[in-house]
Write a structure and sequence with these properties.
single chain; 354 residues; mainly alpha; Farnesyl Diphosphate Synthase; two-stranded antiparallel ribbon; 16 helices; 68% helix; globular
């Protein structure tokens, strides 16, 4: 990891990029294209896994009654569709990849909620709180297996390379989660290690999502590599923004309790940056992290102020903007239409509030 991971001065002027952003039209357009295929894929699951998946995806309530709930932003599936178009193919060529990455993403969310003990997602009870740990694990596993099945059944002559990409992506995602869990037992996590973890836990799937449609379309390696780099960079931007929201996000918007990452004592990017900088605030924050008592809201507000005083919030916002700028530069050879859609997605990621 280069030293510019730690720099804020060169990107300070770009922080205005990371503000509340309107949902780009491309997300709605690709969601309408992908949703029928995603529902058809979930219908392949056994009855129990199908019902739990439908709830988690926001299609039903806990009793199986259809709802108009929020199934998430569907950023990853949008990237997969647009990546096929970036390779000169139709949007439809990217749909199997879009379904697959959406399934992998939701497999990881179901498992993450269980591992983190989170009781609420998107303003609703999490799967494990309703159906128990065993069913959460099995449903996540079913979605992951189904993702590979969808790619291999895509009909593309490039289904096997796409399936390999999906498997490698999932392996990297799991490694990132392994690192994240291991950090809970350590008080000496460095910023470089934290960036590596985020690159696996979040960057890997966004990178794979931005490349899988192009792989299904048979794009040349230079196109696939450019899209993968784009996805990797916006993945890190996504995690940086997520970590800011995990401390300072509005619970009404995020659907998570105030100071949620502080309650969990997560070694998130802004927190790790703050402790790495030293100084009075950084040392006091490190001492708090090494303790056991999470404290009440007043204490957590004090800790959040320490992170901010040590520069963690400012750095995370600036670094997210820098990552988005780097991602956009990777698209120089991509056709204008798909490039504009990818840039819109990247800027939405950096400016979202949930």
């Amino acid at each position: 990891m280069t030293a510019d991971v730690f720099s804020t001065a060169e990107v300070a002027s770009d922080t205005a990029t990371v503000r509340a952003a309107a949902v780009p039209e491309i997300l709605g357009r690709t969601r309408d294209l992908v949703q029928p295929a995603l529902r058809a894929a979930v219908d392949r699951l056994d009855e129990g896994s199908r019902a739990i998946s439908a709830y988690h995806l926001g299609w039903t309530d806990a009793n199986g009654v259809p709802t108009d709930g929020n199934g998430g932003k569907a950023v990853r599936s949008a990237l997969a569709v647009v990546s096929a178009q970036a390779a000169g193919a139709s949007a439809e060529m990217g749909v199997p990849g879009a379904v697959a990455v959406e399934l992998v993403h939701n497999f990881s969310l179901v498992h993450d909620d269980l591992m983190d003990g989170d009781t609420e997602r998107r303003h609703r009870p999490t799967v494990w709180t309703l159906w128990g740990a065993a069913n959460a694990i099995l449903t996540g596993d079913a979605m992951l297996a189904l993702a590979q099945e969808v790619v291999l059944d895509s009909g593309s002559p490039h289904a096997i390379p796409a399936g390999r990409l999906l498997a490698e992506t999932t392996r990297r995602l799991i490694h990132g989660q392994v690192l994240d869990v291991s950090f809970e037992q350590r008080d000496d996590v460095t910023l470089t290690e934290c960036v590596t973890m985020a690159g696996g836990k979040t960057g890997a799937l966004l990178s794979g999502s931005a490349a899988i449609g192009a792989v299904l379309a048979g794009a040349p390696p230079e196109v696939v590599d450019a899209l993968a780099l784009f996805g990797e960079e916006i993945g890190l931007a996504f995690q940086l923004v997520d970590d800011v929201l995990g401390i300072w996000g509005d619970p009404v918007v995020t659907g998570k309790p105030v100071y949620s990452d502080l309650r969990a004592r997560k070694k998130s990017l802004p927190i790790t940056y703050a402790t790495s900088r030293g100084g009075t605030a950084g040392r006091e924050l490190a001492a708090w992290l090494a303790g056991q008592d999470s404290g009440d809201d007043a204490d957590l507000a004090r800790v959040a102020a320490l992170v901010e005083s040590a520069g963690g919030r400012e750095w995370a916002v600036a670094e997210a903007a820098r990552r988005v700028a780097t991602a956009e530069q990777a698209l120089s050879a991509i056709p204008p239409g798909p490039r504009a859609d990818l840039v819109a997605i990247a800027r939405f990621i950096a400016g979202r509030e949930a």
